[in-house]
Design a protein that fits this description.
Alpha-Beta Plaits; 150 residues; 8 helices; 39% helix; globular; four-stranded antiparallel beta sheet
Length: 150
Amino acid sequence: MAEKTLIIFKPDSVQRRLCGRILTRIESKGFKIVGMKMLQITKELVSKHYAEHVGKEFFPRLEKFTISSPVIVLAVEGNDVIKEMRKLVGSTDPHEAEPGTIRADMSVISPYNLIHASDSPESAERELEIFFKSEEIFDYQMPDDAWLCR
């Protein structure tokens, strides 16, 4: 069943000019981009997005990294997209990520792991609402939907 998830190309993706390559991997997998924009994340937005990490020892470093450069946020749709994007992205630690994943193939050092992907339907819904207004997410048909959507 088709679902939506939030993907963030983190500052290191933008700074290393990897966004196009990562986007190609997502689209090649058959997922549909239904929303996309570039923005500068603020401290307030970091705290809202990573609410479960506020107050933890590593949060100041995460916050500093996240606001260091613009990011690209995407709303991505597809069958089992949350689970499948997590597999495509790979383990949080690039050295533990499976070969062929985005993080294993393109990331050099943790915590600079290039990309965020929602980890559950609940997180995806919450995170999409943080970064997108309802009118910024589009519903449209693709010519290959018959091959890619159940």
